[in-house]
Amino acid sequence: xxxxxxxxxxxxxEERLSPFAARTTTSKGRKLPEEPSPLRTEYQRDRDRIVxxxxxxxxxxxTQVFIAPALDHYVTRLTHTIEVAQVARTIAxxxxxxxxxxxxxxxxxxIGHGPFGHAGEEALAECLPEGFRxxxxxxxxxxxxxxxxxxLNLTFEVxxxxxxxxxxxxxxxxxxxxxxxxxxGQVVKVADAIAYVNHxxxxxxRAGIIEERDLPAAAQRExxxxxxxxxxxxxxxxxxASWAVTGTGRETSxxxxxxxxxxxxxxxxxxxxxxxxxxxxxxxxxEAERGKKIVQFLFRHFVANPAGISADFSLATDxxxxxxxxxxxxxxxxxxxxxxxxxxxxxxxxxxx
Length: 353
Ligand code: MG
Prior knowledge:
353 residues, binds magnesium ion, Hypothetical protein af1432
């Protein structure tokens, strides 16, 4: 039995995808060429590499919105990532796009997030002269830092989709950090927003910060009033409004992933509501400020004491600030908190997680 028949069959199946879908056979490939796997396409292989990293495992103890959650039902960076992958796969499959590429990029998109969610990101952005963005850090972790500085040698399309998965506050589809070159990358970008707006509503209700009935009237009217209704409405709208990407119409140039104008408007309104009422809410903000101070304390500590930086999470040839940022951003909330407490950081004392 020649196992490489399996990959040949999987690649032949990809020929049935939309003419606008990404195919492993036309991928721009990896920086270092590798022998193909007999059993998996290149994007399946990328997905597996991401899931087997230490950085992926650490997502389970990293904050999504509610810091170092003491309650078991809050979303963590890991459960958020799994929801994004699920939403992205549903949309990709419905539009006859490459589900494996969408899944690989979704699973890797937040791997560069530091401890304490966006507070950690803000903290490091203030420390590093070149700034700090989690999407660039996700690429850096996967491409440079994992496997003792050798990186995972992922395909161009997966890294591109991860780098461009971030969104500007004012509009989900604003260019922000660039438009992904593949439609699957565009799917991941929107799947991220669909997942977080919805699970953050649930968490904010759970935390007693908002009630379902506080949500903007237009969102309740257009998207429904429960978690499943909202998710279903958003995913269905994306599929319907982006139908041209299936290639079943007359388009000759690549169409885009989009919401209908009506749903785009209510989704942006809902997102803005979440910024004002949840993400920038006083209690969330006070916790965030505390998380930020802990991250900056640790950064300064390791710049002053570089011998403590793990060789596993930094590159010896980099400047000390970069090495400290790579090390600290890799930490989970609870590891950062414990370490800062041991090192005498005042903000880390008495914070139970
Ligand atoms: Mg995300």
